[in-house]
Design goal:
The protein has 22 helices and 25 strands. With about 675 residues, the protein is α+β, with helices and mostly antiparallel strands.
Amino acid sequence: MAKADGKKEKKGSYGADQISVLEGLEPVRKRPGMYIGTTGPDGLHHLVWEIFDNSRDEAMGGFCNDIEITVLPNNTIRVVDNGRGIPVDMHSKTKVSALETVMTTLHAGGKFGGDGYKVSSGLHGVGASVVNALSIYCRAEVHRDGGKYAQEYSQGKKKGAVKKIGSSKLHGTIITFQPDEIIFGTIKYDWNTIVNHLRQQAYLVKGLRISVIDARGYEGKIDTEDTFYFRELGLELPSITYYFEGGLVSLVKYHNKFQKPLHDNIFYVEKELDGVGVEIALQYVDDIVDRITPFANNINTKEGGTHVTGFKTALTRTLNTYCKKNEMMKESEGGFTGDDVLEGLTAVISVKLQEIQFEGQTKAKLGSMEAQGAVATVFGEAFAAFLEENPDDAKTIINKSILALKARKAAKAAKDSILRKGALEGMTLPGKLADCQSKNAEDSELFLVEGDSAGGSAKQGRDRRTQAILPLRGKILNVERARIDKMLASKEVRALVIAMGTSIGDTFDLTKMRYHKIIIATDADVDGSHIRTLLLTLFYRYFREIIDAGYIYIAQPPLYKIKRGKEIHYAYTDEERMKIVGKSNDVVEIQEVETDVPTEEAEETEEEVKKKANKFHIQRFKGLGEMNPEELWETTMDPNNRVLKKVNIADAEEANKVFDILMGSEVPPRKSFIQSNAKLADIDI
């Protein structure tokens, strides 16, 4: 537990006058997407990040070293920190408690100048108030200056004044909130999403302990108002704690856990320049993709920004300068491009700015221009020194980039050859593609089906106006470690690329996409799953923009056709099958049949006819090729009846790791993954 007098006060006061007020709170519930991006799962978890970020900012300022996040029953989140505690004294402008001002007023916080925070992730100061506005219940509890204070809210409105409810020797803030189902609909927190995000944060703040507790299912066993840290209760709750001293170097090692490093020394620099704190760690691995993870004030800026631009510019310039200085490349080969030096790179870039500008409240991209110059200068000087001091590592990195350069030129020649060939043929579409009549990409769909048999049924059963069919023969190339030249040598991959119309690599153009729905329709068996995984690997590595645009779908064909008399039902899961069949008394018999072809039978009695009418005839579909065109249309292709799953990348880092493990060349990580997850697999024997 944190004692009130246990920390030395840092320079800079933090009282009511440091809380700035800009405008009211009303717009949040009307347009929540403007403040949290979406009201789907991402927005739901964004509420957790907003409250956590406030506690984390206290830690970045040196006022906090312990944060606990608990997922409580009834979809409630509780975040505790041992920081200074939100001020509770009267605010000079609002004439109410500073705590109430922070929780109920948009654009109110200690992040608009003054000495409240030197560095924070907050830009608009909307975090706590937005979470409050979008919660059916919210409670703020503050331990500060020997007192314990609390206030409760609903949908952003206070339920009473801030009250002192006791004395306390602790210091810190506890925020508990329950998201409003009116805003979010179905509310379900994903444990892995929360844990992965907070583990990442623990790497970024040295010396900060972050505990995550899952208390769902423990109703009535926890007193949420009389306890500071739940872990001190001694309950055996599912939990995990993160604490790292290694910082970004540890994070790079974590990212490369399933990779083969090309050099042992991990580059690292931490320096402040012109008020911008720059911290970077990197290491090259034996792979052809790059993994750059950027942060700005500890916010993961997934879309990059000025700090990433500065890093890439300095990386390319520094390696070109070193290579030329040491005569490691022929002049005829030109020089490295940005893509050459990124191949196989794992890097973490972290910048800290006092006046920070993000593009949008969700902070996906950094817009602060001063970060670009600071990163380029700090990283460029430090990386040049690293290369000079570690000549063996420098040689390895340069050779890796030279290999990438040669491969790029070979791939460009192969791609240009293929595209020129297509142009000479009038960009002829693949012969096996049954194209749709519509030329409007928004209305057009491309089904990727497994084999000629399924292709034949799909071509006959489709809506020719809007649905195109591309049969795939066998398993496509595993592109996880294949460059574009080798990839385009595969007939199946080349046919798909030409059919989509977007081209590939540096000539990729999403606006030329011929179909806004690419539907992967493979069989529900091991081979079908493998083909689906290979296709997803292809899209993930070379067509991420198509996934991000929401154009990739997975068809969900039924597993069973169930007939009872003249009634026909389709079941997509074993649970649906049991629900249809049920346990009623009129179920005389359940038969497994391979086809619906009638067999010659002797004339039946009336009693036998009635008995037969009560029998369930269940056909188990092993593949799409077993369905006739009518069945395939009715169950899998008809927009009015079908079930499609849209492919998105909720956690790019985790997806990247899984693709590395399952589709990469290293056998031990894949073997370990399979052994660890074997019991979770649904195997159809």
